[in-house]
Amino acid sequence: MASLGDVVGTNNDSRSQPLLRDDPSSGNGDNTEDEKPKLTCVRWWILFVYCCIALCQSATWNILSPINPSVILAYPTWSQAYINWVINAANFSFGIMLWPTPALIKKLGPRWVTILSAICVLLGAGLRVIPVDGEAFQVVMIISMLFNGLGGE
């Protein structure tokens, strides 16, 4: 059976590895009835933790946009341009992290990249509870959104 690398034509180099292995134990091949993937508590725990991180990041990311009129009433010194900048700060840092994330996954593995992502989301949310006022709070909000975007896998 030809590997995916052979089909795509990327196996010109003898050092290259196919993206998908053909053996059923890798989880990428066709499983027979006797070779079902094992569902363990650890896999469900990892899925649960990953979903919680994604939920927290989404809640942090989407905090200002739906309540935009209320934010302007609560913080009269904030302009619409500043609110847009805070919202887009996470988009900018997320776009920057799109390029190195696959390389980090390849080098460190998905576990460490997920941990780094969770730390960035935690820092982003944690910065918002620092009790500062005025322009310092505006800077902290932008930095928190930058961290939140960096955590976006």
Decide which structural class fits the backbone: mainly alpha
- Main sheet attributes: strand count, strand direction, barrel closure: none
End-to-end separation: 33 Å
Compute the CA-based radius of gyration.
21 Å
Give the low-confidence spans. Answer: 3-11
- The overall average pLDDT, rounded, is 78
Write the SSE topology.
Layout (H helix, E strand, L loop, with lengths): L3 H5 L32 H21 L6 H7 L5 H18 L2 H9 L1 H18 L7 H16 L3
Entry keywords:
153 residues, mainly alpha, 7 helices, disordered N terminus
Structure description:
The structure is a single chain. This protein has 153 residues and is mainly alpha-helical. It is 61% helix and 0% strand. It has helices at 4-8, 41-61, 68-74, 80-97, 100-108, 110-127, 135-150. The longest helix is centred in the middle third of the chain and has 21 residues, at 41-61. The protein starts with a helix and ends with a helix. The relative contact order is 0.11. Mean pLDDT is 78; it is low at 3-11.
